Amino acid sequence: MRKSYDFNNATKGPVLVAKGKTRITIMLDDDLLSFFRTQAESQGMGYQTLINNVLRLELQKSTSKKKEPQLLTVATLRKVIREELNAV
């Protein structure tokens, strides 16, 4: 190690930028934050990671419910009619 270091050209900020993540400030209720911290500790992860995972799951649930209805094609209609006729 050196006896002294020159920080005249140094810049403030993180050494490595986290790609794909943005730092924000959010206000959460104390009980909610306590819940996530407890759950995260028992699962061996950070509470912010757990909150991110829960939000992602809810987003996936809400977007999967909004699937486009499939169009009925002639081939599908024929297949359904054949299955119904065979069932009788």
Rg value: 27 Å
The coarse silhouette is elongated
- Please write the string of helix (H) and strand (E) elements: HHH
Low-confidence stretches: none
Major sheet details: none
- Overall mean pLDDT stands at 87
Number of helices: 3
Q: Which structural class matches the secondary elements? A: mainly alpha
Please count the beta strands (DSSP E, at least 2 residues each).
Answer: 0
Q: DSSP strand (E) fraction?
A: under 5%
Give the helix proportion (percent range). 40-55%
Cα distance spanning the termini: 87 Å
Describe the structure.
The protein has a domain at 30-87. It has helices spanning 30-43, 47-64, 74-87. It is built from three helices and no strands. The mean pLDDT is 87.
List keywords for this structure.
88 residues; mainly alpha; 52% helix; elongated
SSE blueprint:
Elements: H1 30-43, H2 47-64, H3 74-87
What is this entry, summarized?
This protein is mainly alpha-helical and 88 residues long.
